[in-house]
C-alpha cells in the first residue's frame, strides 16, 4: 500500500500538470490585430506537436507500468487519469486534423502575401471553395468561431498586401 500511495501521488501530480496544459490550450489566444492566416497554421502545428509529445510520454513504458500497477491495486485515481487520457487524445486528434485541413490553404498564403491586388483577386474564388470544403468536411474546424478567426486573418493579410502595394506603387 505504501508503494501504491506513492504512485497515486505521482499520478495526481501528472493529472494536475496535464489539466493545466488542457486549460491553457483552451484559452483564447492573444494575437496582433494584423496577423495573417499563416499564423493559424503555425498555431495548430505547435499545438499538434505539444499534444503528440504529451501522448508519446503517456504511452511510454514507464507510465504504462505505473498505470498497470495502479490498475492491479484498483486505485481510484485511474478514473481521472482515463478522462485526461481521452481529453489529450481528442486534443491531439483535433490539432492533427486542423493542420491537415489548413495545409490545403497553404498554397494561397503566398499569393495573398506577395501578389498585387489584381493577381490576389484571381486566387480568391479557389480560396473560398477550399474554405467551404474545410467547413463542410472538418469535424473540428467547422465552428463559427474558428471560421471567423480564419476569415479575419485572411482579410488582414489582404489589407496588408494592398497597403504594401500602395506604399511601394
TrEMBL record:
| Pfam families given in the database record | DHC_N1 (PF08385)
Q: Where is the Dynein heavy chain tail domain?
A: 5-167
> Which GO BP annotation is one of this protein's?
microtubule-based movement
Q: Which InterPro entries match?
A: DHC, Dynein_heavy_tail
One Gene Ontology MF term: dynein intermediate chain binding
Q: Which residues form a coiled coil?
A: none
Q: Which residues form the signal peptide?
A: none
Gene Ontology CC: one annotated term: axonemal dynein complex
Q: Which domain of life is it from?
A: Eukaryota
Which protein, by its recorded name, is this? DYH5 protein
Q: Which organism is it from?
A: Serilophus lunatus (silver-breasted broadbill)
Amino acid at each position: 500500500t505504501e508503494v501504491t500511495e506513492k504512485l497515486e501521488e505521482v499520478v495526481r501530480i501528472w493529472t494536475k500538470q496535464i489539466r493545466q496544459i488542457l486549460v491553457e490550450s483552451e484559452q483564447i489566444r492573444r494575437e496582433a490585430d494584423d496577423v495573417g492566416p499563416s499564423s493559424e497554421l503555425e498555431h495548430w502545428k505547435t499545438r499538434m506537436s505539444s499534444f503528440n509529445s504529451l501522448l508519446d510520454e503517456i504511452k511510454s513504458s514507464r507510465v504504462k507500468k505505473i498505470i498497470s500497477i495502479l490498475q492491479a491495486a484498483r486505485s481510484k485515481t485511474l478514473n481521472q487519469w482515463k478522462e485526461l487520457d481521452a481529453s489529450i487524445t481528442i486534443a491531439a486528434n483535433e490539432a492533427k486534423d486542423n493542420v491537415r485541413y489548413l495545409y490545403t490553404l497553404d498554397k494561397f498564403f503566398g499569393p495573398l502575401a506577395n501578389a498585387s491586388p489584381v493577381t490576389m483577386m484571381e486566387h480568391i474564388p479557389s480560396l473560398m471553395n477550399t474554405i467551404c470544403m474545410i467547413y463542410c468536411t472538418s469535424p473540428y474546424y467547422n465552428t463559427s468561431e474558428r471560421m471567423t478567426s480564419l476569415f479575419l486573418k485572411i482579410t488582414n493579410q489582404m489589407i496588408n498586401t494592398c497597403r504594401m502595394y500602395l506604399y511601394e506603387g
